Amino acid sequence: MRGVIFCVIACAVILAVFSGRFTFAQYAKPVKVPIRGACQTCHKAHADEWLKSAHARAWISELFKEMSDNYEREECLHCHAPERLLDTGFGKEPKLRDRTREGGVDCSACHADLKGRMHGPYEIEREFHENVKNEEIGTVEMCASCHYKFGTVSEFKETKWGKDPKGCVECHMPKVERPIGEMPLVEKKYPVRFSRVHTFRSVDDIEFVKESLKLEAAVDGDKLIVKLSSINVGHKFPTGFNVNAAVIDVSLLDGDKQLLSFKHLLSDERPQGKDTRLLPEETLTLSYPLEGKKGTAVVRLLYKRPKTLPDEKALELLKVEVPVK
Ligand code: HEC
Ligand code: HEC
Ligand code: HEC
Ligand code: HEC
Ligand code: HEC
Hints:
Blueprint: H1 2-17, H2 25-28, H3 44-50, H4 62-67, H5 85-88, H6 107-111, E1 118-120, E2 131-133, H7 140-147, H8 152-157, H9 167-172, E3 175-179, E4 192-196, H10 206-212, E5 213-220, E6 223-230, E7 245-254, E8 257-266, E9 283-289, E10 295-304, E11 315-324
The structure holds heme C (5 copies).
One heme C binds near residues 107, 111, 121, 138 and 180.
């Protein structure tokens, strides 16, 4: 807890220093990082997905590099380049590994044990590596090893999804059917099984956002009513580390001319300020005076990391327009 408070203060100071240098482009495309154990040889689909995920960027992230003082702050490193979780046990913070740190939260961190066996959902006879059927893989407890720290897990436990032992992966790793292994050099075909998508869907997956948050706008007399509803978000929006924030950006436009402009911040500003984030299943209703002006009201939901990013560089999650006659 002391660590979090320390970080809140320290990070606010650091953030003030380097706003405006980051964009979301880095969050959308796959990265090139090494994978311990060359899992991609036989699990190409999983590897291609994972390379697009935040877990693959956990170490090389420019923002992380800056905020950890170029990897000098010891207390920041272990969750961003963890050793095998199965060594320390789920629910406990992992240890920092000493090699291939660029790989971030990699395959081995989640699946491998000390003996090099791979833990997963299936009972599979030895095929290239030994496999262990482990019901704990994919539990909230597993994700909590790292995600407990910034409140996401305790927020989740308060929701209607909170009792599902696999709640996080049900939303973040949807199920598909496909072979889960392949051997490019051998004829052998593997069976189609249930498998979970490894992109760890997040704000950069716009479809996921559209299924989960709803933005509406309507004119009522001389007022613009804006509603943001959390439909399928199993924690606050945004959640996690308080470098994340969202903004509801409202403008009344007449052609290119901006007649009115309003902003509403969704952010955890504690301890100095308030926590204004959207709660699970909450509908936030905002009302803005139109002052008799006419044009088109444009309402956008923006996401920023870090929150000091200027609005022009934010990721646009949702947008609605209504004529004001
Ligand atoms: C030389 C090929 C090969 C390599 C390299 C390889 N695997 Fe596998 N893996 C397989 C095959 C084959 C299966 C079983 C596929 C099947 O029967 O459906 C498998 C199954 C698995 C399973 C499922 C286990 C279970 O019991 O549910 C996991 C998890 C896994 N591998 C993770 C990894 C990870 C992590 C790495 C890298 C550290 C890796 N594998 C490297 C071939 C490989
Ligand atoms: C070893 C620590 C660790 C474990 C275990 C872990 N994560 Fe993460 N996770 C991270 C880190 C660190 C990041 C931030 C990476 C970055 O963007 O730099 C992250 C990012 C994410 C994100 C994307 C957040 C964003 O900002 O876009 C999602 C979603 C996520 N994790 C889901 C999960 C789920 C689901 C599980 C359990 C199956 C899990 N994580 C297990 C450390 C972990
Ligand atoms: C009911 C679906 C649902 C459940 C359950 C859920 N999430 Fe999410 N999560 C989302 C959606 C949708 C987003 C994208 C919108 C957002 O940013 O909140 C998201 C975003 C995130 C992010 C990105 C940070 C951010 O800005 O919000 C992290 C990290 C995360 N989830 C972790 C978790 C973990 C860990 C669990 C389990 C304790 C979990 N989620 C449970 C739907 C869910
Ligand atoms: C943050 C933890 C995490 C990381 C990182 C991760 N996985 Fe997984 N993996 C899971 C979870 C959770 C499941 C699903 C378990 C379940 O459904 O019971 C899974 C399932 C699997 C399976 C078996 C069946 C399926 O769902 O497809 C294979 C194979 C696999 N992962 C390979 C990989 C490979 C290869 C990588 C790296 C490219 C990787 N995983 C990275 C958490 C992770
Ligand atoms: C207990 C594990 C843990 C520790 C320790 C930790 N982080 Fe993280 N970090 C996470 C997780 C999980 C996420 C992703 C979800 C979120 O935003 O909460 C994350 C996300 C981040 C992000 C945003 C994603 C990105 O890479 O752009 C930054 C920056 C970051 N951490 C910096 C730090 C710094 C600086 C420290 C040390 C003060 C630190 N972390 C210590 C687990 C950890």
